Hints:
Helices cover 61% and strands 0% of the residues. By secondary structure, the chain is mainly α. The model has no long low-confidence stretch (mean pLDDT 76). This is DUF7722 domain-containing protein. It comes from Dendrobium catenatum.
Amino acid sequence: MSTSAVSNAKAVANKMNGHRNKARDDQKSCFQMPLHYPRYTKVDYEDMPEWKLDRLFVEYGLPVITGDLDGKRKFAIGAFLWSHQ
Length: 85
């Protein structure tokens, strides 16, 4: 491959990468990887107040469930606990 063909290929690749990065920057993502996984037990989730569950869902980028408190607790238990916990 000639040097001009290599230069052209690099220029096209750089331009395409710029478009991908721009598209990625334009998309808003609400998920942020937290530094720590929540360390609550099943009993903790069963006793947790609604405001704290909502805050936990937001912190981990999960949808805030509209519904009763029992449903939110069950969702948190399913989302954050392994089956053996």
